[in-house]
Structures are given as C-alpha cells and as structure tokens.
C-alpha cells in the first residue's frame, strides 16, 4: 500500500499524482528555519463547514447529499462517489483521546506487528520506553556462539530496552523516542503482511479489542446492507509525522467489497484524496480532522485514495480541543505533530 520511492514517469503524469504533488509539503529554502510553503486549499472539500451550514439552514451544497439513516449524526455522501460516506466529528473528544492512547500504548504491543518488526523483531512497551528515555540495544554476540535458530526465532533476545546510561556497552543502539517517531503502522486482529500484501492467518494474533469492535460496528452501520452486522477482523493503524504521506492505493485484499472499511482520523488535520477506478481521474480533495469517520464500501472500494498532506502547525492542525483533555504530557507532545488513522476491515 505504501508506494515505493521509485515512481515511474508514466504514473508521474496521472491526475492522481498531480493532485498529490499539489498538496504534498514543500519547504521554502530561502528561509533559515524549515518553513512549509503555503498550499492552495480553496478546492478542498470541507465537511466541517458543510455540517455547520446543514445544521444552520438544512442545505449541503451541490454534489453532496445527506444519507437517510438512523445514525445519531448527519452522514454525508458525494453524488459522484457512491459507497463513500463522511461523518464529521463522529468521535467525541473523550473517544479521540482514548483511541490516541490505545494507538500508542497497546496497539503496537506484540503479537501485533509494526513496521519495526522487520528490523528489530517484536518490541514491547515502545511508548513507555520513549517516555522513560530508554534505548533499544543489541547485545554483542560472538559469531561462533550465534545459532541460526535464535536469530530467526520470534523471541530473538538480540534487542532490548535499557537505561540510557547502559548504552555504551551495546554494539548497536537506537533510542526509543526515535523509534516512536519512526513508527508508521501497527496491525490488529488478523495480521496484514506488507511484504506479500495479503493477510497471513498463520501469524499469531489477538482479536481486535472488544471496545474497538463495538465502535466499528456502530460506525459501519450507515454503509451496511440492511439487517447485516459488520464483522471487524483486522485493523491497520497508520501513524503520520511531519512530512509523512500515504501514497495513492486501493485496499483490495479483503474478500467482500460490499462491506465498508471504517476509517477513523485522530490528531492533526490532513488532506485526503479520493480518486476513481483509475489514477487518470482527477481525485476529490477533502479535509480529515480528528474525530472524523469515513466509510468506503461498494463502488468506493474500487477508488484510489491517499493522504498527501498532514498539517502539523498549531494554526492548521485543529487539535486545540485535545489540549485540555490530555493530563499526561507525552500523549499531547506526540499528537501535536502527528496524525493517527485507524482503519478497520472485515476480511472475509
Ligand atoms: C489505509 C488508508 C487513510 C487515512 O490505511 O489504507 O487509506 O486516512 N488510510 O489515513
Ligand atoms: Mn486505504
């Protein structure tokens, strides 16, 4: 799903790629400090202001409609993208804080996998270790005593967190705070194998936590075929820091595309691009804010989509409502310059 850095010339010219380039972050090199260049967001659909207008006078504007359903908040649809649903502010501030905490504290815990598994094997307590200023070190192991079995085994004791003062004894080390900044994804429930781009049911896994299942079932409601209940089986949690983006892609590894992907945004505001079946079509750009929920079902499952930009500056991030909610500073520190996306899927 993550695009490789090598994007061939052909795809450089598609309408989707052009939109990604329009919205991605560029820096003004003439300034001493790294300052992002201003971006023209005049064509970005803003469902928060559509909601305000709707609440005020019942109007939603051209190309947008309101779904008739018994959800407790307005659910918006785009006339040109059947199967796509946008629920602005679907999560309360308390819910947003709760899922930000969970995303940092418990979702990256083994047996859930993260992008760090490939390099370091399973890592426990990443967030707490970063808070405590710990360092991940690999112990020096003389070659003649290394047995292949241990190297490939999942419980390879090669890497562990130690106090900063013990760093000097290690042959390799990386601080937990650096690893936290480089955390890009974790997978819940059935584990998605990024190298093969499919679900690997043989990998050990825990069920998706019950509270997240209940939330996803409730959120999926507006996009579900009448009388059916969404069955959350897997979730991918994406972590975005300054300058990170998610290239245009399709999520096509799930069996039944009539079932929605439930996608929740937390933290800094982002721009989401929703294309069509081909990258040649011009995508629609829209803002995603903390607490927004997006559903993609049916035809919308076949639409290219991605996140070319997140806004980490205080003025544009739009996360001031989270400031007073977090009593523990480390969460606030993280989320001030980050975005988290939890997307939940029914695989079978
Ligand atoms: C994904 C995805 C969208 C987002 O992880 O497949 O499309 O809002 N995420 O981050
Ligand atoms: Mn996706």
From TrEMBL:
Q: Which family does it belong to?
A: Belongs to the alkB family.
Q: What cofactor is this protein dependent on?
A: Fe(2+)
| Sorted UniProt keywords | Dioxygenase, Iron, Metal-binding, Oxidoreductase
User: Is Nuclease there in the keyword field?
Assistant: no
Co-factor: note: Binds 1 Fe(2+) ion per subunit.
Query: Domain Fe2OG dioxygenase, which positions?
Result: 231-348
Please give the Gene3D superfamilies that the UniProt record associates with this protein.
Answer: Alpha-ketoglutarate-dependent dioxygenase AlkB-like
Query: What is the name of this protein?
Result: Fe2OG dioxygenase domain-containing protein
